[in-house]
Amino acid sequence: MAKHSVTLERIDKALATLAVQIERFPSLDLWPTFDHLEQLRKTYLDRPNRLKAALERVKDTK
């Protein structure tokens, strides 16, 4: 399995765990951690698009 998908699976599991904890213990301030993990997930999902953009920039400079 590619490292990329393993990382996304781990982030998804962590997000699910945090969501349950936020529901169970609303007095704990877990939202910043949840937001951070969502941002990480978005970054990993966006990598192919960023790679394509970088390759296009290299082609344009030649």
What does the radius of gyration come to? 16 Å
Total beta-strand segments? 0
Structural class: mainly alpha
Percent in helix: over 70%
**How do the SSEs run, as a string of H and E?**
HH
Put simply, the count of helices is 2
Inertia-based shape:
elongated
Commentary on this structure:
There is one protein chain. The chain has helices at 3-24, 31-61. It is an all-alpha fold. It has one domain (3-61). α1 (3-24) runs antiparallel to α2. The N and C termini lie far apart (35 Å). 0% of the residues are buried.
Features:
62 residues; single chain; mainly alpha
What's this model, at a glance?
The protein is mainly α and 62 residues long. It contains two helices and no strands.
Map the helices and strands.
Layout: H1 3-24, H2 31-61
